[in-house]
Each structure stands twice: as structure tokens, then as C-alpha cells.
Design a protein that fits this description.
The complex is a heterodimer of chains A (608) and B (349). Helices cover 59% and strands 2% of the residues of chain A. The two termini of chain A are 37 Å apart. The longest helix of chain A is centred in the first third of the chain and has 37 residues. In chain A, helix 8 packs antiparallel against helix 9 and helix 15 runs antiparallel to helix 17. With 608 residues, chain A is an all-alpha fold. Chain B has a domain of 172 residues: Sandwich (Immunoglobulin-like). In chain B, the strands form 2 sheets. Chain B has a 5-stranded mixed β-sheet, with no helix packed on it. A 5-stranded mixed β-sheet of chain B has the order 4-10-9-6-7. In chain B, a hairpin with a 4-residue loop joins strand 6 and strand 7. In chain B, helix 3 packs antiparallel against helix 4. The two termini of chain B are 61 Å apart. The relative contact order of chain B is 0.12. Classes of the chains: A mainly alpha (608), B alpha+beta (349). Chains A and B meet through helix 4, strand 1, helix 8, helix 9 and helix 10 of A and helix 1, helix 2, helix 3, helix 4 and strand 7 of B. Chain A: GO terms for molecular function: cytochrome-c oxidase activity; heme binding. Chain A: Keywords: Electron transport, Heme, Iron, Membrane, Metal-binding, Respiratory chain, Transmembrane, Transmembrane helix, Transport.
Chain lengths: 608, 349
């Protein structure tokens, strides 16, 4: 869709609500009748693509979280049989107890699905697509066609991954990190047979999807901002999507190269990662490879990946907190600067995942320093969020509550990063439940909270209806309390050295004291999972039956997406694209509740 | 049947919650948006402050409940360093945790929307921002400094008199080799591996291998540094020593090392922990396949006398391997490489 309308958009000043009368958004000149296929399936409208990413992400989230419920049952009740498990999993759960192979497959798929398909595609895919054109004032992405391809490559990746769940030897089961030689040798693990090839294929398609999306996000943000929308007038979500896309574009190709080498090792007889192996009763011919090389390539994406997950959540939380506190975000430039600092540092810390691989300790020291350095921009962000709500006038919408929850879990999980980033603590806690607790709180729960905040906040923009508030509150409170009940005690298990990815702890003198605790955690997991289903129900129910939006700007927000009609068509604004005259955080300025970005600065206005 | 009932109950609960939620939406429309919002604000504001108070109590209670279940005193000298580092970090992060969580929830509660209350337009303040950039930077510098001092001490070269033990991971157990009387490990090459007679692939032409013996448990002498030479036969494993607070990956083709000085004998630990079944365990800490969770070995820490008595009883692998065969040593191909020597020469740590 052409963006040429921006060229002459300066003639018209659209103020808030001026376009509200055009409910169906048919005013766009190039509008043509969409068929079902071009509107809902192969859509090139960024808003529809966002919904496709979101709904695909939700489906994956249910599957991925459902897997965690099954393996938590094993951890809680290692001696109990659940016949229904055999019904759904067949020989993977003979007699109602999942096999170790099934356990490891579930653990691996849980990680892969949640990290890549839900929190990368489902989170940044959804909101980058939805918000970038709407908040920078563009009719669509720089290349709507590439954007569509981005979703469909993700869809293909999803299909291949889904297929891998049904092959006879099972899906990949070497952990979401897929370290060789385990992931390279079918004789070392049945999950490393066809399941691993499908995993690698799926991930390669996923990388293509990310690159297509990421390049689009970057070019849209850099080139297609409406008149007056200078970089420093962009809302913080846009900044966070920008840095996220840059991270992805620079690091996903490295992951792909690592995967390609792994494929060569698997099928072409090369020895990039393989050396001196004796597997299944015979010595292999590979010599001279380095299993550690893969870990470097993997974590060169793997660490930026966690920021790819958390940065969009940070950006959206900043926005939602400011809107609902009726206050500007505190320290806008510091927020942008700290996003930038995090994005740079994200590339310089990957080896902190490898302190105990035999890495040269001198080299390790630099990674300690750089890793702990990340705590500085993170601390700035936390203090700025807290100052944003200080002396505010806060409305506890579900979006606002999830944002507050985000800050809380980001603090809790971020602080344990200071433990693990220090190699002399990591040497004890590495690969224990402490790590599980740390990253689930900081990039699992926090990122989900950011995503929920985004969904509740922008749902009216997506579907022109509200979600049910009461269900939102129930969802928030059970999830917040439940998340802490699940992950907080895991720190203690980790302090006891309890390793992650164990199928059964009962034969271990050092770890079997946590049987009762594991039961408690798993029961909470089931309750929290059920609550998420409540959210999913609320989401789909509200699409069709939710309370209808009657105003274009339900939260009284300043940003451009709320100047579009209630039902924005393809092209977003029926007339000219509005011009921007100010930054997006003029809340409670000069006694006015809010001043939209489209309002010109009046001469008697105070400066900030 | 009971499964069906359980599903039914869950669905029923869902329906009830949903009906309540729907009803409350109608009520809020009747009451007017503003009034409904005020009421929601009051309830959620209260819940936020309640969550803060109960949450902090919960943190304390969780600690009371679980502090006895973690490992207690570190059983190695290196572990003392690590626990010291944990203490420093715990104090600093603990203070920050409590302060920031209190501020967050208290502000949220205090500044909830009220009739007539105006938000304070406060877009930035350079002084504040400099303060909370500099203070974390200083705190982290301190942590990095202490951490790296410990790190370099822990990963330093093992003392000259350290006992050498080789540990090799395979799916799914540990192979432990002692250098025997000469104190030197013989060379090995993976193509010599034979599960029946030569599990790590010792080169029988190397005389250093004559007295090397394999053990099913790892024995250490209390107070005496032990240098582990760590390797793997198949996939990446990890030698995890939770009581010693140490860990090192076992990587095929790339030998690694780690050294520890055990402080207490197994018998002393039985007393200290009050657990008559106490044993030092080696856990595999790197996902290595379907038997990962069962990859366990035991360390016995004992006095020098006990250790000497145990050593005297061990038969060298060479003897075991050649007892079955004819006395004529098999003429084997000269190995192309020698990974033990590589370990010692490269001496990664």
C-alpha cells in the first residue's frame, strides 16, 4: 500500500476524534473489496498479520504450556500413573507414566515453542506489526508483501515443528539449545533422528520469517514516519521494536549458520562439532571438531534472543504505565538510551552461558564484567518505571496491572541475573533450578506480562471491542501470585545444586528432599495453566461478543493509533495521515489530562 | 469416570466465573463507567498492597521452610569462596529487591486514581537519573571485583602436589581412572575403546598405563587438593559437585580440568548433616540424553590411611584387560593422537 499520502498530509491537521464519524474506514482511496482469502488469509494489512501472529502464538502457547503441565506432573508424582496420559501420548506414556524419552521431548519442545514461537513471533511479531505503522503514522509496513511472507514462513515453520511432534521417533529432545554431539547423533538419542532434522528445518524457516519481519520493521521505522514524527517523538514501544528488530537481524543469521554446520555434521560427514566419539559401541571417524563452537554460535543469537523477547515487553509496559498513570514516562531519553545500551551489550555477553565449558577464565572475566554491566541500564529502567507511577493518578486497568506485575517480576528475575552473571556463583548454580527460576521469572513471566498488558491495552484497537475486565482481573491476580509460587521456591532447589532437566530425583541423596515442594509447584502450575485458558476464552469471546468500543480513544491516550477510526481499514487513516507536533507523553501537562501528538504546541505552553 | 467428573467440575467452575464476569460487566455499564472504574481501582489498589505485605511474609516463610534443605556448609575450600560471593550478592540484591518492590506496590496503591487528584507532570530529572545510574554502577563494580578475585582463585593452576584423577563421561555413567603409583596417567585414544576391557581407550604400549586403575567410586583425601581431568566419550556431560559448589563440562575431544580441596570426610559430613545416608554425589549437569537424570557417581572423602588402603586393593586396568587374553600383548596399531597428554600440555585451566 502506498504511503504517498504522507507527502501532502501536512495540509490537514487531524485532531483527536476528528475522524470518529467514519466507523468503517472505507475512506482510503485505494480501497477495494477484499475477498475472504485476501482479507483473512493472505492478508497484506499489517493489522491482520498482527492478529495472525497473535492467534498462532496463542495456539502455540497453549501447546507449549500444556507440555509443561505434563512434565510437571512427572516431577510432582514420579510414582503415580495417569492413565489418560497413555490415552493421549500412546507408547510415550506406557502405563500412564511418561517415559524419559517423552519427558525430554516435552522439555525440549516446551522451550523451543515458548522462546521462539510464542515470545518471539507471538510477542514482537504481533505488536511490531500492529503498532509500528499505527504509532509512527504509516499506512502499512515498508513492504506489506514481505510482511505477509514473514507470517507465512512462520506458519510453515510451525507446521514443520508440529509435524515433528508426530514422527515415530519423536521430536527433538536434546533441550531447546540442541547442543551437539547429542543433537548430531541419532544413536545418542532417538530425538536426534528425524525429529531433529525437522526441528532444524523449522528453525531455519523461522529465521527467514524473523529476517523478513525484522528488515521490514527497521525500514518502516526509519523511512515511513509521518510528518513531524522525529525519532525522539516516537512512542517507546516503537523504539523497543526497533532495537528488537536490529538484534534479530544481526544475530539470527549466526544461529542459522550454526544450524547449517550441524546439518552438515549430521548428514554430510563433516566434523565441525564432532571429535573423538565412541557411540553405540563403535568409534566414529570424526576428529578435530569442537562441540563448544556450536555453543558460541548458538548463544551469539541465544543471548540477544532473551532481549528480543523482553525489549518489546519493556516498550509496551512503558507506554501502558504512562497512559494509565496519566503521567509522562519518566526520563524518556534515558529509557531510549538504556534500550540502546541493552541492545549493544546483548551482543557482548553470550559466553556467560559457557562459564563452565572450559572457557579460558581470563576471557570469562570480560564476560562477567560486561554481563553485570547490563544491570545498569536495567536498573535505570526500573527506577524510571517506578518514578513514572510516583505521584500519578493510576487507573488499574488489566493492562496497567500487568505492567505493574511486569516491573515486579522484572526486578525479581533481573536481580538473580546478577547472581548468575558472576562466574564465581554460576560455577555452583549453572544448569540448576536457580537458572530455571531466574529466566522464567525475567523473560518468561515478565515477557508474558508485557504481552498481556499489550493485549488488554490494544485489544480495542485490534477488534473494536473491549475484553472482559473482571476476567482480566482474575487472570492477573492468579497469574501473579501463581508465578511467584511456582518460581520463587525453585531458587532454593537451585541453591541445593538440583540440576535442571532431570526426569526423576528420587534416587539422589542430595536432591530428594524436595519431593513435597515439587508437588506444590506442580499443583500451582495446573491452576495457573487453567487461568490462562480463562484468558484465552476471554480473548476469543470478546472478539465476537465483547463490549463494543464507542470512542476512538478509549484510554485517552496521546499516540497516533487512537486517531484512527474505530474500525480502521487497510491504510489506517481514511483521510490524510495526521501530522505530529509533540512527543507522545504529554499527560497532565499544564492542567490538561492529555494532549494528543497531533495537537500543535501552543505558544503559552510550558516547556519540558 | 472420575477423570470425566474432574473435567466437568473444571468446566463448571469456568462457566460460573464467566457468568459472574459477564454480570459484573452489565453492572458496571449500569453504574456508569466512571463509578465502576473507581470501584475497580479501590479493589485492585487494596489487592496490590495486600500482595506486597503477604508476598514479603511469603518470602520470609519460604526461607524458613526451605533454608534447612539446601546444602549447608560448603565441603570444599573453593566452595567457601563461592558461598562468600553468594552472601555478598544476596545482601546487595536482597536490599534492592525489598526497597524496589515496596516502592513499586506502595506507589501503585498510594497514587491510585482519586476524585480531584491530579497527576504530577514530571518528565525527567537529571540529578535523579545520574544518582540511579551511578549507584548501581558502583555496587556492580564491587560485585565484579569480589567475584573475579574468587573466580581467578578457583580457576587457577592446581597446586603441584594435587592428586590427579581422570573422570570421563559416557551415556550414562562416569568412568573414573587413577594414575596409580607413578602418579601419571597413561595416554589414551578413543579408537582403542572397548567396553569390556578398555572403557577409556588406554594405549597399552604406553608404560604409564601399566599401573592406571579404573574405579567405580571416586576417592579423595580430606584436605588434599584433587585435580580432575575431565573428558567425555560421546556427548557433552558436566561434572557437578554440589557439596563442593563446583562444576565443569565434560566435552568430547576437548579435555577440561578443575581442582578442589575437600574439607570434610564423608563420615564427618554424615555427622554434620545428621543424615546417616549422606554421600557426596557427582551429578551430570548437562543434558546428555534419556538417562541424564540417572548419571550419578559417588565420591568418598576419607583420611590418607583409608585412601592408601583402598588404593592398595585396586587392580590396574592393564592387568584386568590382559588377564583374560594370552600373555602375548596384542600388536596394536600405534595411536594417531594422545588425548591425555593433550590435556596436560594444553592445561586449559
Amino acid at each position: 500500500m502506498s504511503n504517498d499520502a504522507t507527502l501532502h498530509s501536512h495540509q490537514q491537521e487531524l485532531t483527536h476524534g476528528a475522524v470518529a464519524h467514519d466507523d468503517h474506514g472505507n475512506g482510503h482511496e485505494h480501497h477495494h473489496e477484499d475477498s475472504f482469502i485476501s482479507k483473512y488469509v493472505f492478508s497484506m494489512d499489517h493489522k491482520m498479520i498482527a492478529k495472525q501472529f497473535l492467534i498462532t502464538g496463542i495456539i502455540w502457547a497453549i501447546i507449549g504450556a500444556g507440555f509443561s503441565v505434563i512434565f510437571r506432573l512427572q516431577l510432582a508424582f514420579p510414582d503415580t500413573a495417569f492413565p489418560w496420559l497413555e490415552t493421549i501420548l500412546g507408547h510415550w506414556a506406557k502405563g500412564g507414566r511418561i517415559t524419559p524419552e517423552a519427558y525430554y521431548a516435552l522439555v525440549t519442545m516446551h522451550g523451543t515453542i515458548l522462546v521462539f514461537f510464542v515470545l518471539t513471533a507471538g510477542l514482537s511479531g504481533t505488536f511490531s506489526n500492529l503498532l509500528i505503522p499505527l504509532q509512527v503514522g504509516a499506512r502499512d509496513m515498508a513492504s506489506p508483501f514481505m510482511n505477509m511472507l514473514s507470517y507465512w514462513f512462520f506458519f510453515l515453520a510451525s507446521m514443520v515443528m508440529m509435524a515433528s511432534l508426530f514422527v515415530q521417533t519423536g521430536p527433538a529432545s536434546g533441550g531447546w539449545t540442541a547442543y551437539p554431539p547429542l543433537s548430531a547423533l541419532g544413536d545418542a538419542s532417538i530425538g536426534s533422528r528425524i525429529g531433529m532434522d525437522l526441528w532444524l528445518t523449522s528453525m531455519a524457516l523461522f529465521v527467514v520469517s524473523q529476517l523478513l519481519g525484522g528488515l521490514n520493521y527497521i525500514s518502516t521505522i526509519l523511512n515511513m514516519r509521518t510528518k513531524g514524527m522525529s525519532m525522539t517523538r516516537m512512542p517507546l514501544p516503537i523504539w523497543s521494536f526497533f532495537f528488537t528488530a536490529v538484534l534479530g537481524v544481526l544475530s539470527f543469521p549466526v544461529l542459522l549458520s550454526g544450524f547449517i554446520l550441524l546439518l552438515f555434521d549430521r548428514h554430510a560427514g563433516t566434523s565441525f562439532y564432532l571429535s573423538e566419539l565412541f557411540v553405540a559401541g563403535k568409534a566414529l571417524s570424526n576428529e578435530g571438531g569442537s562441540a563448544i563452537l556450536y555453543q558460541h554460535l548458538f548463544w551469539f543469537l541465544g543471548h540477544p534472543e532473551v532481549y528480543i523477547i523482553i525489549l518489546p515487553a519493556m516498550g509496551m509496559v512503558s507506554e501502558v504505565l504512562a497512559v494509565n498513570s496519566r503521567k509522562p514516562i519518566f526520563g524518556y531519553l534515558a529509557m531510549v538510551g538504556s534500550l540502546f545500551a541493552i541492545a549493544i551489550l546483548a551482543f557482548l555477553v553470550w559466553a556467560h552461558h559457557m562459564f563452565v565449558t572450559g572457557l579460558n577464565p581470563f576471557l570469562g572475566a570480560f564476560f562477567v564484567l560486561l554481563t553485570l554491566l547490563i544491570a545498569v541500564p536495567s536498573a535505570i529502567k526500573v527506577f524510571n518505571w517506578i518514578t513514572t507511577i510516583w505521584k500519578g493518578n493510576i487507573r488499574f486497568t488489566p493492562g496497567a496491572l500487568f505492567s505493574i506485575g511486569f516491573v515486579s517480576t522484572f526486578i525479581s528475575g533481573g536481580l538473580t541475573g546478577i547472581w548468575l552473571g558472576n562466574s564465581s556463583i554460576d560455577i555452583h548454580l549453572h544448569d540448576t533450578y536457580f537458572v530455571i527460576a531466574h529466566f522464567h521469572i525475567v523473560m518468561g513471566v515478565s515477557a508474558f506480562f508485557g504481552m498481556f498488558a499489550g493485549i488488554y491495552h490494544w485489544f480495542p484497537k485490534m477488534y473494536s471491542r473491549y475484553m472482559n475486565n473482571t476476567l482480566g482481573y482474575i487472570h492477573f491476580w492468579i497469574t501473579l501470585v501463581g508465578a511467584y509460587c511456582i518460581f520463587w521456591p525453585m531458587h532454593y532447589e537451585g541453591m541445593a545444586g538440583m540440576p535442571r532437566r532431570y526426569y526423576d530425583y528420587s534416587s539422589w541423596e542430595s536432591f530428594k528432599q524436595f519431593v513435597e515442594l515439587n508437588k506444590f509447584i506442580s499443583i500451582v502450575v495446573v491452576a495457573v495453566f487453567a487461568t490462562q485458558l480463562l484468558f484465552v476464552f476471554n480473548f476469543f469471546y470478546s472478539i465476537f461478543k465483547g463490549r463494543k468500543l464507542t470512542t476512538t480513544n478509549p484510554w485517552n491516550a496521546t499516540t497516533l493509533e487512537w486517531t484512527t477510526p474505530i474500525h480502521p481499514g487497510h491504510g489506517n487513516w481514511p483521510g490524510e495521515i495526521p501530522e505530529v507536533h509533540r512527543w507522545p507523553y504529554d499527560y497532565s501537562k499544564d492542567g490538561k489530562d492529555f494532549i494528543p501528538q497531533t495537537v500543535p504546541v501552543s505558544p503559552d505552553e510550558s516547556k519540558h | 469416570m472420575s477423570g470425566f467428573l474432574a473435567v466437568l467440575v473444571v468446566v463448571l467452575i469456568f462457566v460460573v466465573i464467566f457468568q459472574i464476569a459477564k454480570a459484573s460487566e452489565y453492572v458496571s455499564i449500569l453504574k456508569g463507567e466512571k463509578k465502576a472504574r473507581q470501584q475497580n481501582n479501590r479493589i485492585n489498589g487494596f489487592l496490590l498492597i495486600a500482595f506486597l505485605v503477604l508476598g514479603l511474609i511469603g518470602v520470609y516463610y519460604c526461607n524458613e521452610l526451605l533454608k534447612g534443605k539446601i546444602l549447608g556448609e560448603p565441603a570444599s575450600e573453593q566452595g567457601e569462596s563461592i558461598d562468600n560471593m553468594i552472601m555478598w550478592t544476596l545482601v546487595i540484591t536482597g536490599v534492592v529487591f525489598v526497597i524496589t518492590q515496596i516502592l513499586l506496590f506502595w506507589f501503585a496503591f498510594k497514587y491510585q486514581e482519586r476524585e480531584g487528584q491530579k497527576a504530577f507532570y514530571f518528565p525527567h530529572n537529571n540529578k535523579l537519573e545520574v544518582i540511579w545510574t551511578v549507584i548501581p554502577a558502583i555496587a556492580l563494580t564491587i560485585l565484579v571485583a569480589i567475584g573475579l578475585r574468587h573466580w581467578f582463585r578457583i580457576t587457577s593452576e592446581a597446586p603441584k602436589d594435587a592428586m590427579i584423577v581422570e573422570i570421563t563421561g559416557k551415556q550414562f555413567n562416569w568412568l573414573i581412572r587413577y594414575p596409580g603409583k607413578d602418579g601419571k596417567l597413561g595416554s589414551k585414544y578413543y579408537k582403542n575403546i572397548n567396553d569390556a576391557t578398555n572403557p577409556v581407550g588406554q594405549d597399552w604400549d604406553d608404560n604409564l598405563n601399566r599401573d592406571d586403575f579404573m574405579a567405580t567410586e571416586m576417592h579423595m583425601v580430606v584436605g588434599k587438593p584433587v585435580k580432575l581431568i575431565i573428558g567425555s566419550r560421546d556427548v557433552v556431560h558436566d561434572v557437578g559437585l554440589p557439596h563442593f559448589r563446583m562444576k565443569m563440562d565434560a566435552v568430547p575431544g576437548i579435555p577440561t580440568t578443575m581442582w578442589v580441596t575437600p574439607k570434610f570426610t564423608t563420615a564427618q559430613m554424615k555427622e554434620k548433616t545428621g543424615n546417616p545416608d549422606f554421600v557426596y554425589e557427582i551429578s551430570c549437569d548437562q543434558m546428555c540424553g534419556s538417562g541424564h537424570y540417572s548419571m550419578r557417581a559417588i565420591i568418598v572423602v576419607e583420611t590418607q590411611e583409608e585412601f592408601d588402603a583402598w588404593t592398595a586393593k585396586q587392580k590396574s586396568q592393564y592387568e584386568l584387560a590382559h588377564a583374560a587374553e594370552a600373555p602375548a600383548a596384542p600388536e596394536q596399531e600405534k595411536p594417531a593422537a594422545d588425548s591425555t597428554q593433550k590435556a596436560v600440555a594444553a592445561n586449559i585451566q
